[in-house]
Automatic annotation (TrEMBL):
Transmembrane segments: none
SUPFAM superfamilies: PSPTO4464-like
Protein name per UniProt: Dual-action ribosomal maturation protein DarP
NCBIfam families registered for this protein in UniProt: PRK05255.1-1
Gene name for this UniProt entry: yjgA
Family listed: Belongs to the DarP family.
Main localization (coarse): cytoplasm
GO MF terms, alphabetically ordered: ribosome binding; rRNA binding
Protein backbone atom coordinates (compact mmCIF):
# COMPACT_ATOMS: atom_id res chain seq x y z
CA UNK A 1 0.00 0.00 0.00
CA UNK A 2 1.40 3.43 -0.91
CA UNK A 3 1.51 5.77 2.09
CA UNK A 4 0.99 9.51 2.24
CA UNK A 5 4.06 11.54 3.17
CA UNK A 6 3.69 14.50 5.49
CA UNK A 7 5.35 17.61 4.19
CA UNK A 8 8.70 18.07 5.94
CA UNK A 9 10.73 15.66 8.09
CA UNK A 10 10.17 14.87 11.75
CA UNK A 11 12.52 13.83 14.55
CA UNK A 12 11.91 10.93 16.96
CA UNK A 13 13.32 10.54 20.50
CA UNK A 14 16.63 9.20 19.15
CA UNK A 15 17.14 12.14 16.86
CA UNK A 16 16.62 10.16 13.69
CA UNK A 17 15.18 12.18 10.90
CA UNK A 18 12.74 10.32 8.71
CA UNK A 19 9.63 10.89 6.68
CA UNK A 20 6.42 10.24 8.61
CA UNK A 21 4.15 7.82 6.75
CA UNK A 22 0.45 8.38 7.26
CA UNK A 23 -1.86 5.51 6.52
CA UNK A 24 -4.75 6.42 4.20
CA UNK A 25 -8.18 6.47 5.82
CA UNK A 26 -9.98 3.15 5.64
CA UNK A 27 -12.95 3.09 3.29
CA UNK A 28 -15.82 0.66 3.49
CA UNK A 29 -15.65 -1.97 0.81
CA UNK A 30 -18.98 -3.65 0.14
CA UNK A 31 -19.06 -7.40 0.26
CA UNK A 32 -19.72 -8.44 -3.31
CA UNK A 33 -19.25 -12.15 -2.79
CA UNK A 34 -22.95 -12.81 -3.16
CA UNK A 35 -23.17 -10.86 -6.41
CA UNK A 36 -19.99 -11.91 -8.16
CA UNK A 37 -19.24 -15.27 -9.73
CA UNK A 38 -15.91 -17.04 -9.33
CA UNK A 39 -14.71 -15.61 -12.64
CA UNK A 40 -15.33 -12.08 -11.37
CA UNK A 41 -18.51 -11.42 -13.36
CA UNK A 42 -21.72 -10.26 -11.72
CA UNK A 43 -24.44 -12.86 -11.17
CA UNK A 44 -27.66 -11.45 -12.65
CA UNK A 45 -29.83 -14.39 -11.60
CA UNK A 46 -32.68 -13.71 -9.13
CA UNK A 47 -31.62 -13.87 -5.51
CA UNK A 48 -32.37 -16.91 -3.39
CA UNK A 49 -35.20 -15.10 -1.61
CA UNK A 50 -36.71 -14.00 -4.95
CA UNK A 51 -36.61 -17.57 -6.24
CA UNK A 52 -38.28 -18.74 -3.01
CA UNK A 53 -41.08 -16.18 -3.42
CA UNK A 54 -41.61 -17.23 -7.02
CA UNK A 55 -41.73 -20.89 -6.01
CA UNK A 56 -44.25 -20.19 -3.23
CA UNK A 57 -46.38 -18.15 -5.64
CA UNK A 58 -46.51 -20.98 -8.17
CA UNK A 59 -47.29 -23.45 -5.39
CA UNK A 60 -50.26 -21.35 -4.25
CA UNK A 61 -51.42 -20.92 -7.84
CA UNK A 62 -51.35 -24.67 -8.38
CA UNK A 63 -53.26 -25.36 -5.17
CA UNK A 64 -55.93 -22.85 -6.21
CA UNK A 65 -56.71 -25.12 -9.16
CA UNK A 66 -57.89 -27.84 -6.78
CA UNK A 67 -60.84 -25.68 -5.72
CA UNK A 68 -62.18 -25.32 -9.27
CA UNK A 69 -65.02 -27.31 -10.79
CA UNK A 70 -64.63 -29.62 -13.77
CA UNK A 71 -66.03 -27.03 -16.16
CA UNK A 72 -63.74 -24.35 -14.76
CA UNK A 73 -60.72 -26.63 -15.19
CA UNK A 74 -61.76 -27.34 -18.77
CA UNK A 75 -61.79 -23.60 -19.47
CA UNK A 76 -58.14 -23.22 -18.41
CA UNK A 77 -55.09 -23.89 -20.61
CA UNK A 78 -53.77 -26.75 -18.47
CA UNK A 79 -51.30 -29.38 -19.67
CA UNK A 80 -52.83 -32.84 -19.41
CA UNK A 81 -50.38 -34.02 -16.75
CA UNK A 82 -51.16 -31.03 -14.53
CA UNK A 83 -54.90 -31.38 -14.99
CA UNK A 84 -54.77 -35.07 -14.06
CA UNK A 85 -52.76 -34.24 -10.95
CA UNK A 86 -55.31 -31.60 -9.92
CA UNK A 87 -58.26 -33.95 -10.47
CA UNK A 88 -56.53 -36.64 -8.41
CA UNK A 89 -55.83 -34.19 -5.57
CA UNK A 90 -59.55 -33.47 -5.28
CA UNK A 91 -60.18 -37.15 -4.58
CA UNK A 92 -57.55 -37.53 -1.85
CA UNK A 93 -58.87 -37.24 1.70
CA UNK A 94 -55.81 -38.28 3.73
CA UNK A 95 -53.92 -35.22 4.97
CA UNK A 96 -50.46 -36.62 4.23
CA UNK A 97 -51.42 -37.85 0.78
CA UNK A 98 -53.04 -34.53 -0.11
CA UNK A 99 -49.95 -32.64 1.05
CA UNK A 100 -47.68 -34.74 -1.17
CA UNK A 101 -50.02 -34.33 -4.12
CA UNK A 102 -50.04 -30.55 -3.66
CA UNK A 103 -46.25 -30.53 -3.63
CA UNK A 104 -46.29 -32.53 -6.86
CA UNK A 105 -48.67 -30.01 -8.42
CA UNK A 106 -46.31 -27.21 -7.38
CA UNK A 107 -43.42 -29.07 -9.01
CA UNK A 108 -45.38 -29.31 -12.27
CA UNK A 109 -46.27 -25.62 -12.08
CA UNK A 110 -42.58 -24.70 -11.90
CA UNK A 111 -41.92 -26.57 -15.15
CA UNK A 112 -44.45 -24.71 -17.31
CA UNK A 113 -45.31 -21.17 -18.34
CA UNK A 114 -47.89 -20.38 -15.67
CA UNK A 115 -48.85 -16.91 -16.94
CA UNK A 116 -51.81 -18.08 -19.11
CA UNK A 117 -53.19 -19.95 -16.09
CA UNK A 118 -52.67 -16.94 -13.82
CA UNK A 119 -54.39 -14.62 -16.30
CA UNK A 120 -57.35 -16.99 -16.66
CA UNK A 121 -57.76 -17.26 -12.89
CA UNK A 122 -57.47 -13.48 -12.49
CA UNK A 123 -60.19 -13.00 -15.11
CA UNK A 124 -62.39 -15.53 -13.30
CA UNK A 125 -61.94 -13.72 -9.97
CA UNK A 126 -62.77 -10.41 -11.63
CA UNK A 127 -66.01 -11.84 -13.04
CA UNK A 128 -66.91 -13.22 -9.62
CA UNK A 129 -66.35 -9.83 -7.99
CA UNK A 130 -68.51 -8.14 -10.62
CA UNK A 131 -71.28 -10.70 -10.12
CA UNK A 132 -71.12 -10.36 -6.34
CA UNK A 133 -71.40 -6.58 -6.64
CA UNK A 134 -74.35 -6.88 -9.03
CA UNK A 135 -76.09 -9.40 -6.75
CA UNK A 136 -75.69 -7.03 -3.80
CA UNK A 137 -77.13 -4.17 -5.84
CA UNK A 138 -80.18 -6.25 -6.80
CA UNK A 139 -80.76 -7.14 -3.14
CA UNK A 140 -80.51 -3.48 -2.17
CA UNK A 141 -83.11 -2.44 -4.75
CA UNK A 142 -85.48 -5.27 -3.78
CA UNK A 143 -85.26 -4.37 -0.09
CA UNK A 144 -85.77 -0.70 -0.87
CA UNK A 145 -88.83 -1.43 -3.02
CA UNK A 146 -90.33 -3.56 -0.25
CA UNK A 147 -89.56 -0.88 2.32
CA UNK A 148 -90.54 2.31 0.44
CA UNK A 149 -93.03 1.12 -2.18
CA UNK A 150 -93.99 3.63 -4.89
CA UNK A 151 -91.25 6.11 -3.95
CA UNK A 152 -88.60 3.46 -4.59
CA UNK A 153 -90.31 2.47 -7.86
CA UNK A 154 -90.03 6.09 -9.05
CA UNK A 155 -86.35 6.22 -8.04
CA UNK A 156 -85.66 2.96 -9.88
CA UNK A 157 -87.44 4.23 -13.02
CA UNK A 158 -85.34 7.40 -12.91
CA UNK A 159 -82.15 5.34 -12.80
CA UNK A 160 -83.32 2.73 -15.33
CA UNK A 161 -85.70 4.41 -17.80
CA UNK A 162 -86.02 1.22 -19.88
CA UNK A 163 -87.83 -0.78 -17.17
CA UNK A 164 -91.58 -1.36 -17.05
CA UNK A 165 -92.15 0.70 -13.93
CA UNK A 166 -95.90 0.00 -13.90
CA UNK A 167 -95.38 -3.78 -13.82
CA UNK A 168 -92.66 -3.48 -11.20
CA UNK A 169 -94.93 -1.24 -9.14
CA UNK A 170 -97.73 -3.84 -9.13
CA UNK A 171 -95.30 -6.63 -8.30
CA UNK A 172 -93.84 -4.55 -5.48
CA UNK A 173 -97.26 -3.97 -3.93
CA UNK A 174 -98.06 -7.67 -4.14
CA UNK A 175 -94.74 -8.56 -2.52
CA UNK A 176 -95.31 -6.04 0.27
CA UNK A 177 -98.77 -7.45 1.03
CA UNK A 178 -97.40 -11.00 1.10
CA UNK A 179 -94.67 -9.87 3.45
CA UNK A 180 -97.21 -8.33 5.82
CA UNK A 181 -99.26 -11.53 5.89
CA UNK A 182 -96.37 -14.00 6.11
CA UNK A 183 -93.65 -14.72 8.63
CA UNK A 184 -91.27 -15.64 5.81
CA UNK A 185 -88.49 -13.18 5.10
CA UNK A 186 -88.76 -13.73 1.34
CA UNK A 187 -92.16 -14.49 -0.18
CA UNK A 188 -92.94 -15.88 -3.67
CA UNK A 189 -93.65 -12.37 -4.98
CA UNK A 190 -90.43 -11.18 -3.38
CA UNK A 191 -88.46 -13.85 -5.25
CA UNK A 192 -90.20 -12.90 -8.49
CA UNK A 193 -89.33 -9.26 -7.83
CA UNK A 194 -85.69 -10.26 -7.41
CA UNK A 195 -85.71 -12.06 -10.79
CA UNK A 196 -87.28 -9.06 -12.52
CA UNK A 197 -84.67 -6.75 -11.02
CA UNK A 198 -81.89 -9.15 -12.00
CA UNK A 199 -83.02 -9.06 -15.62
CA UNK A 200 -83.38 -5.28 -15.54
CA UNK A 201 -79.91 -4.76 -14.07
CA UNK A 202 -78.11 -7.49 -16.02
CA UNK A 203 -76.86 -5.15 -18.74
CA UNK A 204 -75.95 -2.25 -16.47
CA UNK A 205 -72.67 -1.46 -14.76
CA UNK A 206 -72.47 -2.95 -11.25
Amino acid sequence: MVGLYQAGPSTDLHGDRHARILAPPETACPDMTDDVDQDGSYDERPSKSARKRQSDDLQALGEALIELSESELDALPLPEQLRDAVVLARRITAHGGLYRQKQYIGKLMRKIDAEPIREALDAKRTRERVEATRFHRIEQWRDRLLREGSEAVAALAAELPHIDSKAIGKLTERARKEQEQSSQKVTPAGRELFRVLRDALSNTAP
